[in-house]
Design goal:
It is a single chain. This protein is mostly helical. The protein has one domain. 64% of the residues lie in helices and 1% in strands. The chain has 18 helices and two strands. It has a two-stranded antiparallel sheet with strand order 1-2. A hairpin with a 2-residue loop joins strand 1 (341-343) and strand 2. Helix 2 (17-36) crosses helix 3. It is globular, with a radius of gyration of 22 Å. The mean pLDDT is 84.
Length: 454
């Protein structure tokens, strides 16, 4: 009901779809901050302060996972419930949840709302958008339900029936939404389960499914043959597979002899941890190895993986696999002397290539700017730690080298804004560029002249 009321109020201002999405997310964050600021949300019975509540709400809605206070030891059941609801709203998207409540209360979905849904889901046309949203909701709740059931086989014996069920539901939603929030306590994330095959495999599967994107999941379920998949689905599956395999191999090699990470684990533990940490930088935020003890090479590789993130139209963040993939394919085409960017016997339109370049360029500029500012405000932290934290915030990952709980007031504000920008920024920029491409081009063209590059 709350989301429907927000939707109604936003409609009064005659905003374009991109603005509605941004204001929708901002409204949910504000409401979450108000609820988490209540004394009832804190186990101490004392408010954590609005800034800490705002930071946590932003991290939850933006499905990031960075926290300034420990989720398990600081928040009551009420606070933890608010957090997981914010994660679900943020993961599915503001308009998807609004549609869910509209369908639940038999509210008519207007043309304007369908247009916003189209852009929120990264779809090329409005036809069947409500049906797609229904399929997304059904698939999401089904996957999260199955994940919770599987996780309960470990959590119930360990924590008891009631607590085990709650932990299973919380971590299943958090994993599928690529949020990275956990209830293990003391900022440990999933490190106590480093050798647990069930936890590792289930969490990784949920993260991958959430990061593939709803359009990809629907395409795979409906067509079932690679040759019949859309180009978007083929590119997502191809690049995701490469990143997962490459990450696994590199982490296994780089950390194999590190006594603080893989060094003292069994061979099974090494395999599971390498697999887990090739998946989680794709914007999930969980960790089974102490992130601060990773080698410098692994940390840098993690930064690259975090920046790329998951896929468009998914619960993941980053610049997206397709965006990075289009850029790489364009470079390959240039090296081969081809005018067009080609893959799987298809040509990618020039406007898509330009949009990818713009998203990556603006994203890098924002990360560099915030890193420079935090290097001034956050004394005592080296460059790599700050760079890692900013990239994690922008890509809505949630991995940290231990800097987040010690952020200054300015640092908390900047990281919160970076998380918000990472969740809606590149996406909104891409939408704006897409709209510009749809406008009729003018007849006036300036004379062409070359500049020297390279």
């Amino acid at each position: 009901m709350i989301i429907i009321e927000i939707d109604k109020r936003i409609e009064k201002f005659n905003l374009n779809p991109a603005q509605i999405i941004v204001l929708g997310f901002a409204s949910v964050i504000l409401m979450g901050a108000i609820l988490l600021n209540l004394p009832i949300a804190s186990k101490s019975g004392i408010s954590v302060g609005f800034l800490n509540a705002f930071f946590t709400s932003t991290s939850a809605v933006c499905v990031t996972g960075l926290v300034v206070v420990d989720t398990a030891t600081n928040w009551t059941i009420f606070g933890q419930t608010v957090i997981i609801l914010l994660i679900q709203i943020g993961g599915l998207g503001f308009m998807t949840m609004a549609t869910f409540f509209a369908l639940l209360f038999r509210k008519r979905i207007t043309l304007r709302e369908r247009l916003v849904m189209q852009e929120a889901l990264n779809q090329f046309n409005i036809s069947g958008i409500v049906r797609l949203t229904q399929h997304i909701l059904i698939a999401t709740f089904t996957i999260e339900g199955i994940g919770a059931i599987l996780l309960s086989f470990t959590f119930i014996p360990r924590y008891g029936l009631a607590k085990g069920i709650g932990y299973s539901i919380f971590h299943s939603i958090s994993a599928f939404c690529n949020a990275g929030f956990d209830l293990i306590g003391n900022f440990n994330s999933l490190t106590p389960f480093v050798d647990d095959g069930l936890i590792n495999i289930v969490i990784c599967t949920l993260i991958i499914l959430g990061g593939l994107g709803f359009a990809v999941i629907m395409d795979v379920l409906q067509k079932r043959k690679f040759a019949k998949f859309t180009l978007h689905t083929k590119v997502v599956l191809y690049i995701t597979s490469i990143l997962l395999i490459l990450g696994f191999v590199l982490i296994f090699i780089l950390e194999y002899s590190n006594p603080d990470t893989l060094g003292n684990l069994t061979f099974k533990g090494k395999i599971l941890s390498s697999m887990f940490h090739s998946v989680t930088p794709r914007t999930a935020g969980f960790n089974t190895l102490p992130t601060g003890q990773l080698t410098t090479a692994t940390i840098f590789m993690t930064i690259v993986f975090m920046f790329i993130g998951g896929s468009s139209g998914s619960t993941a963040g980053g610049v997206k696999t397709t965006t990075a993939g289009v850029l790489v394919l364009n470079i390959i085409s240039i090296i081969k002397g081809k005018e067009d960017t080609e893959v799987f016997n298809r040509r990618i339109p020039r406007e898509i290539v330009n949009r990818s370049l713009a998203v990556i360029g603006i994203s890098m500029a924002l990360i560099i700017l915030v890193t420079m500012v935090l290097s001034i405000t956050e004394k005592g932290n080296d460059f790599l730690t700050i760079f890692f934290e900013v990239t994690s915030a922008f890509a809505t990952v949630g991995l940290s080298l231990g800097m987040t709980p010690h952020l200054s007031i300015i640092g908390k504000i900047l990281i919160a804004l970076t998380m918000f920008a990472g969740r809606v920024g590149p996406f909104t920029i891409a939408l704006a560029l897409a709209k510009q491409q749809q406008k009729k081009k003018g007849l006036l063209k300036y004379p062409e002249e070359r500049v020297i590059v390279g």
